[in-house]
Amino acid sequence: MSIRQPTERPLRTAASVNRVTSAALVGTVIEFYDFALYATAAAIVFGPVFFPGFAPAAATLAAFGTFATGFVARPLGSALFGHIGDRLGRRAVLQSTVLVTGLATFAIGLLPGYRELGVAAPVCLVVLRFVQGLGIGGEWTGAVLLAGEHAPAGRRGLWASLPQTGPAIGFLLANGCVLTLSAALTEGQFLAWGWRVPFWCAGLLALIGFLLRSRVVETPVFQELARDDALARSPLRTVLRQHRGRVLLVAGAVMCTYAVHYTATAWAMSHLAGRPGFTRTGTLLCLMAAMTVMAAATPVAAALGDRYGRRRVGIAGCVAMGATAVPYPALLGTGGLPVLWASTTAMLLALITMLGVQGAYIPELFEPRVRASGTAVSYNLGAVLGGALTPLIDTRLSQTTGEGVPWAVAAYLVGVCAVSLLCLLRLPDTQNEQPA
Fold it and tell me: Rounded distance, CA 194 to CA 359, Å?
């Protein structure tokens, strides 16, 4: 697919570059702070707060069920914000998504538990989680398009990787807050009100993100489309009619990154809860240390994609994820915290090798006039397929093995990685093309 390069690019000053990169990064940090916070709370808090009458294992499954609701909303959010991005501009998406997700997360922190509201409490939790998922459905797309379409030639991958560090940084901020409060408060205080504080902070973070994004100019690609009256009238319909096969292949390629991520974070923390040698504080510290390494490696993976081809680097990452998934369940509960950190770090490094190039690679697969819709729908469909049910599936598979090694979890991850690899092999290489 040959895509025309814009005829001109605006002059980049240090101030404009800083505004673009800051706006692209800060939004994904905030959005994934919200998403990671919910995942952590679902693993350790929401069971006793919103499902107190359930047995511990059943309460965890119920909490992860509400977690999946956010993924159900993501395709709807991708359709809505993808349309906005193709019709009104990438900047409009960025301003909208940060408010939608941030305010929903803030409201979760205000929500009374089951003992105060009864069955209305988990129902409201599901509704707010759904709204949160709507915002996330457009966030990543707006951020990577903002960075990638402002990027200088030959460095699109590196610029588009900046939003890709957001999930790791957001995870660190969210779990850092949870860790600090968990260590400073008693168990009763933490369950009563302490877990709510990080959710309240989301409101302030959303306001900061909105103000930063209000200062960013529209991308030169969208400005040119608008100037030439070349905007798609029905971008989503065009994508589904003309690029349906590509959407499905991209979704299949993306799904393994989400399956691996939520296995190594949400499920691992839940699986190790209460086991000798794995305190909540120690487990969170190990996961945060692994995510720090992942964040640092993100621009490295993107730079490799710029040099050697994004598809080639993505294939290497996909194979590495499948390979590291095999010993992971056996290592998870043995050797204590050092082994937990090492095994999780290995999985996340394999993950970022693939995820680090996706911010540039996926938009390159769609023509500029439907790029927001094509990228948003395909990426978020992959997120649903790989992430929505993974904590539930992992939890159920591990319960069938009792105290033994949950090899079924490894088999599940390897299977998902195999499907993603097949999809990735069917997608074209964009290394020698010059998309707008």
Answer: 35
DSSP letter for each residue of 229-244: T---SSHHHHHHHHSH
Smallest CA-to-CA distance from 148 within 221, 83, 98 is with 221
Rounded CA separation 83/148 (Å): 18
Contact in structure between 302 and 357 (CB atoms under 8 Å):
yes
CB neighbour class for 72 (10 Å; exposed up to 12, middle 13-18, buried from 19): middle
- Position 282 scores a pLDDT of 86
Number of domains in the chain: 1
Task: Write down the residue that tokens 């729908």 correspond to.
Answer: 377
User: Three-class SS of residue 292?
Assistant: helix
3, part of any domain = no
Question: Which pLDDT value is given to residue 10?
Answer: 46
Report which of 176, 95, 108, 204 is spatially closest to residue 139, judged by C-alpha positions. 95
Residue 101 is part of a domain; what is its CATH number?
Answer: 1.20.1250.20
With a pLDDT cut of 70, the percent of the chain lying above it is 94
Backbone angles phi, psi at 118, to 5 degrees: 70, -145
- Could you tell me if residue 431 is inside a domain? no
From the number of C-beta atoms within 10 Å of its C-beta (0-12, 13-18, 19+), residue 184 rates as exposed
Is it the case that residue 71 has pLDDT exceeding 70? yes
- Under the phi-then-psi rule, with left for phi > 0, alpha for psi from -120 to 50, and beta for the rest, what region is 274? left
What domain range is 315 assigned to? Answer: 17-426
Domain presence at residue 1: no
Instruction: Provide the terminal-to-terminal Cα distance of the chain, rounded to the nearest Å.
Output: 12
- Count of all residues that appear for the chain in the document: 436
pLDDT in tens, 334-380: 878 999 999 999 999 999 999 999 999 999 999 999 999 999 999 99
- What is the pLDDT, as a whole number, of residue 355? 92
Residue 320 lies in a domain: yes
C-alpha angle 181/186/190, rounded to 5°?
50
What pLDDT is attached to residue 6? 42
